[in-house]
Every structure is written in C-alpha cells, then in structure tokens.
Amino acid sequence: GYPALVERWAGRLRALAVTTRSPGSLAADIGAELPDNKSCALCRASSDAEAAAVDGLAGRLKEEPQSTLDSLSLLCLPHLRRLLAATESGETARALAAREAGMLERTAEDMRRYAIKHDAVRRFLASDEELAAGRSSLAALAGHRNVNTASGTG
C-alpha cells in the first residue's frame, strides 16, 4: 500500500507545483493534510531548532536557487511544508515541489520493483535503492522519527 500512498503524494505535489500561486499557499495546501502538534514543550523546542535550519536553507534558496535545489536530498513532507512557507519566490517553490514529486515517484517505482523481486525467486536482484525505498518513503511522508518530532509551522 505504501507505493500508492507515495504516488498519491507525488501526484499532489506535481499538481500543486503547476497550479499554486504563492509559496505560502503551496505550504498551506500541503500542511492541510499533515498532522499538527503544538501541545508539547519539547516539540516546540524542536520546532524552533527546525525553523532555524529551514530559514537557513530558505536563505540559500533565495541566493542560489538552482544549485541549492540540486544539492538537496528527499525532504520529508513536514519539513518541505516549512521550507515552502519560508520560500519567497513562487517559481523556486514550484520547482522545489516538482523536484520532490519526481523523487517520490522514483521512490515509489523502487518500492514496486522491490516488491516484484522480493515476491519472486529474484530477490537477489533487488538494488540498494529498492531495498531502502520503503524506509526512505516513510521518512519522506512522515519525517524521521529521531529528527522530526513536530510538524507545526514554527
């Protein structure tokens, strides 16, 4: 079921990248489907630290958008939402969303290929990317359990 969920998010990001007008509304559209946790003091402290890191990345996107986009790995959706909200350029925000959609699509393909190989006698043919696709896609959708403890907007 995870490939379908990852593909759904990839499609949603791709559609938003094409139709959304501003970075704030792009972030709000993504945030509308994510949980929000503001009741814990530790989560708020973590959120403040994350906000500082996101602001730094948003500054890099403003200064050198293409090279910064090229250097990023797959972001989890809670951090993507925060980064989009901090991005000033609509064009850069749409490029970031489209880039994330492409990475999610590739991860979903890896998951499907892994499932085919794992269920068959060809398990030994599974690539490292296919073996890691399930874990990385869950981290992309929900955040890494040891890093992303709050999904608030900071």
Question: How would you describe this protein?
Answer:
The chain is mainly α and 154 residues long. Helices cover 73% and strands 0% of the residues. It has 7 helices and no strands. It has helices at residues 2-19, 23-31, 41-63, 65-71, 77-86, 90-119, 128-142. Helix 1 (2-19) packs across helix 7. It starts with a helix and ends in a 12-residue tail after the last helix. The model is unreliable at 148-154 (pLDDT under 50).
Features:
154 residues, mainly alpha, 7 helices, 73% helix, disordered C terminus
Strand content: under 5%
N-to-C SSE string, H for helix and E for strand: HHHHHHH
Helix content: over 70%
Q: Give the overall shape, derived from the CA principal axes.
A: globular
Number of DSSP E strands: 0
Mean pLDDT: 80
Radius of gyration: 16 Å
Summarize the structure.
The chain has seven helices and no strands. It has helices spanning 2-19, 23-31, 41-63, 65-71, 77-86, 90-119, 128-142.
